[in-house]
Amino acid sequence: MSEAYAARRDRLRERCTASGSATALISRPANVRYLAGVAPHGAVLLLGKTEDLLVYGGPPESPLDEGRPDEALRVHTLPSPGGDPAVAAADLAAAQGADSLAVEEHHLTVTRHRAIGSVAPRLRLGDLGAAVEQLRVIKDEEEISCLRIGSEIADQALSELLESILVGRTERHLALELERRLVDHGADGPAFTTSVGTGPNSGRRGHRPSDRRVEEGDFLSVCLGATYRGYRCEIGRTFVIGTSPADWQIELYDLVFASQRAGREALVPGAAYRDVDRAARQVLDSAGYADGLPPLTGHGVGLEIDEDPQLAPAAMGKLDACVPVTVEPGVHIPGRGGVRIDDTLVVRPEADGGPELLTITTKELLAL
Amino acid sequence: MSEAYAARRDRLRERCTASGSATALISRPANVRYLAGVAPHGAVLLLGKTEDLLVYGGPPESPLDEGRPDEALRVHTLPSPGGDPAVAAADLAAAQGADSLAVEEHHLTVTRHRAIGSVAPRLRLGDLGAAVEQLRVIKDEEEISCLRIGSEIADQALSELLESILVGRTERHLALELERRLVDHGADGPAFTTSVGTGPNSGRRGHRPSDRRVEEGDFLSVCLGATYRGYRCEIGRTFVIGTSPADWQIELYDLVFASQRAGREALVPGAAYRDVDRAARQVLDSAGYADGLPPLTGHGVGLEIDEDPQLAPAAMGKLDACVPVTVEPGVHIPGRGGVRIDDTLVVRPEADGGPELLTITTKELLAL
């Protein structure tokens, strides 16, 4: 695996050289982890002229919790703990004889950028832009395998919850129990704050669990994910509590299900991001739910839970094979509740069987 | 309470006017929450020339979860969800006729700062610096009351854990159980990732819970905190597992206890930050543990878990009354383990009885 990191750095170096700056400073934590395999708190990566350096401070007793970086990467710890690793790395770049340095302007604050400029005044600072984020979009099979295991863990946690008594328990408790089960089954932790919505809160994207208790007749919507070896997946399901769902619940569920299926079926290599979004969105639109729809119906996942691409009306670009994305349309009716259905899938060519569904929990409307 | 937010904004406005910029853009989430009472995801606060505005995007269905801001603050939601509230706020500042705008350069990225500059080219951009963070250092009694309740919750969660069987359980499970108990007792959530260290991991600051199981004879160190109405406290304790601690464990515990007591006793209004640090540090230094000590022995707490002041050797400044801080020295012996003891206290004048201890769990060495 360690050669994979060196190979990723080589790909980035090619891009940098092509755009005129041989050296680069990577500061965004997920980008550091992608290129170095580890990302201790505050660490930055210098793609140097003579060698690559992982630079970080931190207390001496908390070394690289997550393992060792590959052999081609030298580790440089700051002599004094209070310093900024980015500033130290710029200093090291200048010492290596670099004359320019591309930095992540979308991550560095104005204050840090200025400090880098003053410690290495002869270094011409450029913008690396989202070069590393772009490299991260297409995953290798090792990365997909982490997402697959994470999805199995999330499926498992969810299925166990469904076997327990739900009526009377609060959203907050259900969310905590799901998170405990994720860890029980081997996750590093939850991929994001688990969302549980009941009754009028159901179907709200990113709803923060409250003290509302599950009641008979409620919609219950749950969105959770596991982090496994740094990779974050996502699954969302909506259930109905009680013996039989009401007519409006069945209708709304069927609608969102049709929308989500349309989105999933649009996942083919070469499809425009916005067309995938449109496939899911127009099902809801044409049923009269144009207002109040979320700004996107899906997004990339990986080392972060919300990565490129965005499946949204104004998104530019086309899907490639081996890009994992969510498809997660939903409808929320204020005061009443709603439905969200959310899967993580990997885009695959039709010849390989089409999109690979990672989150396999049933999408039938279960009455619990 | 809502007048408190308007009063805070007035204090900030006075500072801004004194330093030449009548309008300011606050983007750091804890600072927005401090001044507005709420901080929806991505929200920024414009301290305007004619009126104050809370500006945010976000999907239409997730409004202000945490309540409504005070009446003197107008809420402005972005028409399209993808926009940057900071850029929109700068535009609104220009529309109000402002000619300068102080921004938080230590929080805004280079990219966002540039976007603000291009949407409002006639606006002279200045640096607000850490003005809001400085206002936040001294707490009012309402803020201290939130910290006090949070500390009671953390004490409660810890005392319940101690009544259960510990041997054989993993660090990860103990940490999760503590977090569940925090929420059970009314916390918004944990104040930071709960740290549980056993055996060789004990005493490590910020240790991430692993799958190591508690064994007879281990040191067990635990660090947790509750968030209550946004305010974050911290408590850390070290226990020994089994019938009776070994001599080296008793010695090490007594040493860290003496260091922590010295730090607590140094908490008086007017004491230099570095002198409080030195009081705790020199006890460990003189016992031969100068190397490997953490860079600080305490820090402020409030809306963030790690606020000003820093109690560290090079820190500048003096304690005031009503400043809540942690005192948390520790020693970790590689391969063997260690001890940390961590309290949250509020600096109070001697006439009021000296420092107010918020985390009241016993600091005797318990054998569990």
Topology:
2 copies of one chain form a homodimer.
Chain A: H1 2-18, E1 24-26, H2 29-36, E2 44-47, E3 52-56, E4 73-77, H3 85-95, E5 100-103, H4 110-119, E6 124-127, H5 131-137, H6 141-162, H7 171-184, E7 189-190, E8 195-198, E9 219-224, E10 226-228, E11 231-232, E12 235-240, H8 247-265, H9 273-285, E13 298-300, E14 307-311, E15 324-327, E16 330-333, E17 337-340, E18 343-346, E19 356-357
Parallel strand pairs in A: 1-5, 3-4, 5-6
Antiparallel strand pairs in A: 1-2, 2-3, 7-10, 8-9, 9-12, 10-11, 13-14, 15-18, 16-17, 18-19
Give the gist of this structure.
Two copies of one chain form a homodimer. By secondary structure, chain A is of the alpha+beta class.
Can you put this structure into words, describing what you see?
The structure is a homodimer of 368-residue chains. By secondary structure, chain A is of the alpha+beta class. Chain A has 2 domains: 2-136, Creatinase/prolidase N-terminal domain (Creatine Amidinohydrolase, Chain A, domain 1), CATH 3.40.350; 138-357, Creatine Amidinohydrolase (Alpha-Beta Complex). The model of chain A has no long low-confidence stretch (mean pLDDT 93). The first copy, chain A, has a 6-stranded mixed beta sheet, sandwiched between helices. Helices cover 33% and strands 20% of the residues of chain A. Chains A and B meet through helix 4 and helix 7 of A and helix 4 and helix 7 of B. Chains A, B: This is Aminopeptidase P family protein. Chains A, B: It holds the Pfam family Peptidase_M24.
